[in-house]
Specification:
Elements lengths: L1 H17 L9 H10 L5 H18 L6 H12 L9
Helix pairs in contact: 1-3, 2-3
Length: 87
Amino acid sequence: MLSMSAEPLEKRLRVEGVKTGRITALDLPGQIEQAVSIGLLNAAEAQLLRDYDRKVMDIVNVDDFSTEELMAGVQAESTAQPLRQIA
């Protein structure tokens, strides 16, 4: 399973890279690039982490909406009739 292979690599990035200050990027793709440049990850490890990150982002972004879709909801609310108050 991809997550089992990626977990120790992510831990190495955090422990040996981010926590020591050797890696300063805030996003995982940037951290991977910095880890390769300082020799913390090799090319194969970096590619595995990139693949894992891409799959995770595909899952997380399943409910990602475009600006037009979001604005359609706002426009629908603004044209709705106000509710009458019952005394």
